[in-house]
Amino acid sequence: MLSYSFSDNKSIPLYEQLYQKIKNDIMSGELPADSNLPSKRSLAKNLSISVITVENSYNQLLAEGYIYSLPRKGFYVSDILRTSGIQDGSGVSRNPNNKATTLSPTQRQKPQWFVDFTSNANETTSFPFSNWAKLNRKILSEEQELLMTNSPSNGLLELRAAIANYLHGFRGISVNPDNIIIGAGTETIISILIQLLGYDLIYACEDPGYEKVSLIFDANNVRNVRIPVDEQGVIIDELSNKSVDIIHSTPSHHFPTGITMPIKRRYELLNWAMKNDSTEAQSGLHNSKYIIEDDYDSEFRFTGLPIPSLFSIDNNERVIYMNTFTKSLASTIRISYMVLPDHLMDEYRKKLSFYSCPVSTFEQLTLARFISEGYYEKHINRMRTASRKKRDLLLRVIRNSSIATISEISEEQAGLHFILKLNMKMSDDSFIKKCRESGINITAISTHSFMFNYSSIPLNRIEEAVVRINRSIS
Amino acid sequence: MLSYSFSDNKSIPLYEQLYQKIKNDIMSGELPADSNLPSKRSLAKNLSISVITVENSYNQLLAEGYIYSLPRKGFYVSDILRTSGIQDGSGVSRNPNNKATTLSPTQRQKPQWFVDFTSNANETTSFPFSNWAKLNRKILSEEQELLMTNSPSNGLLELRAAIANYLHGFRGISVNPDNIIIGAGTETIISILIQLLGYDLIYACEDPGYEKVSLIFDANNVRNVRIPVDEQGVIIDELSNKSVDIIHSTPSHHFPTGITMPIKRRYELLNWAMKNDSTEAQSGLHNSKYIIEDDYDSEFRFTGLPIPSLFSIDNNERVIYMNTFTKSLASTIRISYMVLPDHLMDEYRKKLSFYSCPVSTFEQLTLARFISEGYYEKHINRMRTASRKKRDLLLRVIRNSSIATISEISEEQAGLHFILKLNMKMSDDSFIKKCRESGINITAISTHSFMFNYSSIPLNRIEEAVVRINRSIS
Question: Which of A82, A92, A163 has the most B C-beta neighbours within 10 Å, making it the best mutation to test the interface with B?
Fold first, then answer.
């Protein structure tokens, strides 16, 4: 008969102690495979504990497969395969003092730089915290049923409708909310697109361009090429030369050079997408090409009207429009979206609508109200003014500093960044290194050309930043 | 000289009207390619408007590529490629009365069913709205800097630390928070895993099993097979027969049958993953196999201790643990996670850490506090009690109803669902149809076996639901 003594530690229930002891004996071989365990009643009597306690232990051992039962015969030890690497499988500890790896949960990612021109983050002060909090509170108290309802695969209707109205009013794009798909950042949007369009196609991005897109193509295991851009944008002949099927493009404000694709090139690009010059016979969905129009910072054009989108001049369902709130609202709120032409939306419904929308209903609804109640428009206006102020100050300070004579600044009319070319003898590597040593994070996009993202820079650090940049040049 | 008259409508700025008129003339051919436009000064004089107005219009036309300028010569009309499909590219409308497609943004997805046994949603009343709102409010007022800081690719440290502590205390799993990757639901977790492990492998899921996983494999373009389960779980020989590299499994509570994989089969499964029986020489990362352990509802075991995870008895870095808050908290909050073995985490850092975490920092931080301040544990306990109550009532009502004699219920000890087998003559299709006609949504997992997800069912509808089910059988 098994004989065990129990610990006085009241925090571990008796049945758990018994379970653990029997299991240890099974794992150590003390109780060999197929040996008969005492009946619940007799073990309880023997150990002076209740039958219920033994029953609970046996049930747990049964559930985990350490023992098995035969009808009207009782309980037996299982023949557990002993691999060389076996460790005690218990693992289950209810002891609250038995802490996991020591760590401080409040350990934070502190900003590392005095200013970081490589960051697309927004300044803390630019986020509309009080309005966001107000909407949040309201929704959490008034919309509990909606918050617990799974949104359709392509996102909450209320958010899609708000986006459609916004696109219409401020971007001149008329879309049906049913054609909008909500995603959690560029990553999820592009992954979904690849799953929708196919893995056997040749994808392309602009060169120079948004580096992340080609990384996403690579990670998703699709062939992809880079298409050089000239001063009007992506070079059309290169698309044909490289047999591209899908091109990711930033026509309104090329990333990173800031070029706006002129209307002529836009029509050339649309025309390219209409051609079916594939040598292989293709059919159905993929008998023509697609343009992914990434309109990532169209809200931040500082002069003139926003540029009409490719999407709005496409009559042949060749353009997939995508945009994001990560630039205009906060990079830490992961909401972006794409607009699919009808035939692709049908395809999405057939193939991919089993997916859950990756964005929580809570944030979808908050953003929907934020847009439809007019806060988003006000926020954009405020952001635009603040960004223009930063840009103007930054440019003025650069132009009044000693590096002015060797500086060429391009495309400062739009977006949240510009390119500064420094005609210097110093190598880019040592310049970047010296900048970083003085707390200025900066990156080159080509020889002597540096990207200045200024959205995260506090206005009052701009002068000092330029002083440090000046000092870094030798 | 161009001659235009302007509308009295003060809501459209003059420069925009002029821009529009010139553009229309360009698009219609009235102004042919390469024709010279009047100088700004002379056009302004001619139209009795300011030079600034003309300049703004020209700048917009320039920016969009409708015209070009030659130094010291002036402005010329671009040669815009005219495709057959050209439409007016303007699209930009600032007229607030010009509404997009009519739609009611408040149109809602109303619950369609009296009760829906197919839904994994949670009852509205089960979500801890007041605590969640309290934490939300606190974070939005006190943690603004952190909220605007991009979280690492694998998620906010504070959330990963809270999960690690939770896993340790309640699931007996010791993990380093650095090995945790936060995702937005099973979809994003499995997509990332495929990108990490490779596209040339054979993936597998259990049969019967979690249908969505094989859909995700298909959508991600990887070969995948189904591995039958017997009464102990996945059949090991079938894994070898089908040359499986990666198996998705639910050992703690097989979906949907509810089987708990016994410890013997667990070690057999781990042993399978150690074997390198591929006929092709493989190297590096993929010289062995992996098990994706989906522990999706381990919180809802009603009797005994939770089953130790495969992950906790794996000494050879073969198990990837995944779990989700979509079951335990709310299906509308899209937060899930996986724990990678060290060597895979290294690989993730090298290959995929360029990704942004798909979950917003706001929700990551709220959930982190929700867990670390003890609310999650309390919530789980409350949910467990509520679920047990529902399950007990549902089972009691079924057993007291006239279908009791033809009913077999399996695996009611765990999770948020059970399987009801109805030994009836009626076809499953007509039974399901009749149930649906009476407002009961239900689905079959195999002949005469129906899945009862009860998490979304209000307690007070259970009796009526069973009455309607009884009536549907003929």
Answer: A92
